Each structure stands twice: as C-alpha cells, then as structure tokens.
Amino acid sequence: MKAAEYDRHIKVLQLRRNYGQTAAMCAGIDFACGDIIIPMDGDLQNDPEDIPLLLQEIDNGYDVVSGWRKHRQDASLRRNLPSRIANWVISHTSGVHLHDYGCTLKAYRRDIIKGMRLYGEMHRFIPIYAAWQGARISEVIVQHHPRLHGTSKYGIERTAKVILDLLLMKFLGSHFTKPIYIFGGIGLMFLALAFLVVAVMVLLKMGWGVSMIATPLPVLAAMAFMTGVMNILMGIMVEILVRIYFESQGKSIYLIRDTINVTSEA
Predict the structure, then answer these.
(1) 8 A C-beta contact, residue 10 and residue 3
(2) Could you list the pLDDT tens digit for every one of the 266 residues in the chain?
C-alpha cells in the first residue's frame, strides 16, 4: 500500500474480505491493462527473475506460458506427492499436458483470459479454459524457493477439491452446449437396466415359477425406470437453461481467432 503512494505504476486492489485465491486472481485480471498478464504468489517462493523466460516464450508465438517448479522446495509427502498425482490426473483428463498446474507464475495474453469468469478453486485450470479457446500453450522451468514467511494452507485435503473441480471443468468443456448427451445417456442406461430387470423377472416367473413379489427386483426396476426418466427430463431442462444463457446474454458458442477479407458479420 505504501509503495503505491510513491510509484504510480504500482496498483493495489484491496478486497473487502478474503474471497480466496481464485477471486483475487479474477480481480487482478479484470483490472489489468497490459497486453501480457503475469500473476504470481506473494509468498516469495516464485522468483520474479523468471518473468523474462515467460515473456520469451510469449514472443515465440504462445498465448499461455506456464511455470514448472521442477525442483519444488516443499514437503515431499504433504505437498509434492499430492501435487504430482493431481497434475497427472488433470493432464490426462483435460488433454492439456502440464507438469505443474498449481504454479501461479504463468504468462497470459490479455485477449485470451480477459473477461474469463472463474469460481471456486478453478484458477489452476485457466490454461485449460484458454486451450478451449484455441490458445497455444507452452511450459518453462522456473525457480522455486523455500517458504520463508507464512504458512501454506494447501495440503492433501485439497486433492479432493481438485478432483471435484476437475469433474465440473470436464463437464463444462465437453458437454456445456449439449448437456442432454450426458444426462440423457445416463437416463437411457437406467432405462435399459429397468427393462433388463423386468426381463429377468419374467424369465424367473416363466422358467422357475418364482413369484415377482418374492424378490426385490420389482423395486429395483421401478427405481431404475424413475431415475432414467428423471435424468432425461433433467437433461431437457438443462438444455433449455443453456439456450437461455447464450441467447439472453448475446453469447456465441464459438470464438474467432482472426479473419481474412471479412468486413462485417454475415
């Protein structure tokens, strides 16, 4: 705060309360005015001297450059191992292969992430959101220093949050514009299970004379049928909500990188 009083190049955003890292990054991105945006943690574990490495990759034509803390100076079991597992899962699920999603030191072209809305703990998935928009992504090794000040709030318990956020991210990336495919698919599977159970009940009755009400199969068939119908109806409702979302806000389901000999919208 005091430094900003003497240097007009330093800009400070003071939030009313601690909304979390994702909200803080969103605020910084919203108020940033440069062509390249580089977030960095304030715990001094990242080194500002690595910023030129990121900018060099940006100059090579990349839209997003992610830092990789290859020699990470954190607790091996409590921090490094869960991080490696999470990075492997995220990379193989999203198709965007990075060694270190948790490293905040990254460089973004402003037009790639400006206006991007993030919630929960989704800040680590910004490269994936950028990849959905056709961004070219690279990764460079950066320094990582031992923590000298403060205490980290991240631990093994965050792995569960990462998995849940990853499931949400995967749904938004693959099925956001066609949710009926996933809800309807699940619904059809439950309907198929219901008809299969009915077939088994008929077979038991006709072949072995087993009374249908003597088994739990009627209840299972009814529950599977109702679950299937509910999933299909939910898919239809979500489809309607998605269309309302795009049309009410004038959003497009596609993004254009560049045009040639195009002067106006068709």
Answers:
(1) yes
(2) 778 888 888 888 888 888 888 888 888 888 888 899 999 988 889 999 999 999 999 999 999 999 999 988 887 777 788 888 888 988 988 889 999 998 999 999 998 887 677 776 788 889 998 998 889 999 999 999 888 766 666 655 666 777 788 888 888 777 777 889 989 999 999 999 999 999 999 999 898 888 888 899 999 999 999 999 999 999 999 999 888 877 787 766 666 677 776 765 54
Q: How far apart are CA 63 and CA 174, in angstroms?
A: 22
* Residues contacting 241, CB < 8 A, separation 6+: none
> Which class for 67: exposed (0-12), middle (13-18), buried (19 or more C-beta within 10 A)?
buried
Can you give the three-state secondary structure of the chain, one letter per residue? CHHHHHCCCCCCCCCCCCCCHHHHHHHHHHHCCCCEECCCCCCCCCCHHHHHHHHHHHHCCCCEEEEECCCCCCCHHHHHHHHHHHHHHHHHHHCCCCCCCCCCCEEEEHHHHCCCCCCCCHHHHHHHHHHHCCCCEEEEECCCCCCCCCCCCCCCCHHHHHHHHHHHHHHHHHHCCCHHHHHHHHHHHHHHHHHHHHHHHHHHHHHHCCCHHHCCHHHHHHHHHHHHHHHHHHHHHHHHHHHHHHHHCCCCCCCCCCCCCCCCCC
Token pair for residue 87?
């990075």
